[in-house]
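Much of the work behind modern protein science is quiet bookkeeping, done one molecule at a time. Below is the pair of lines this work produces for a single protein:

***
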Amino acid sequence: MVKPMRSIAIFGAVGALVAAVALPAYAASSTPVNAAATLQQLATNDAQSLVVASEATAAPLERGTFSATTPEEIEKKKAEAAAAARAKAAAAAAASASTSTTFNTAGYALVAPGDGAVRYPLPRGSYTQGRTISGGHDGADMLAPAGTPIYAAAAGVVRVSSESHYGYGVAVVIDHVIAGQRVSTTYAHMTYGSRQVQAGQTVAAGQLIGAVGSTGRSTANHLHFEVWVNGGKAEPYAWLRANAG
């Protein structure tokens, strides 16, 4: 009888000890969450918990930071960008096409001597005939000293007047109607700053338009002169002999 009673007493003491140790831990786990606990602390204890502070408020939206989102807004933005690009290109073209003021025309005849609807682009006797149409060469090279005056071969409207017209360098292109035919004449490799006309300007036959130079793809001073009749190339020397007064 003594031994069974002793065993029962021992088991009772052990149970009491276990209860004494477990009850504080249980009490701690069942304690209400402190409102000041951070989200990270709570996530450490229970990764599936989500706590939102009662003081949380929605942040105000900054509408000014948003870009266009609707189709209408996007199209408007594209149109504005395109208009700005066109304005920039037009300003650059106007700067390139403006009439030169750096070339001194004193001592130059503003109108070539002679008469008739067609004139020689250089004064007679001021040039030597160079190569003409061949291969990729679309005009006649009229060899003359730098600064020799260049005149419009006929009355017309200036289509191009530029300080940098592709390989032509400083060049002028004029459109004419001669004897019912559409004629275009090109004057290339002129001296920088010598242009006396601008795009859109109406010129008279024999009017001063520039001076001989060697700009663009050129190796010596000369006038590269082209003639196009109804869209086709014409040999310039022969055309001048047949039409110039």
Observations:
- Strands lie at 128-129, 140-143, 149-151, 156-162, 170-178, 181-190, 202-203, 208-211, 222-229, 232-234.
- The CA atoms of residues 129 and 142 lie 5 Å apart.
- The first helix runs from residue 2 to 29.
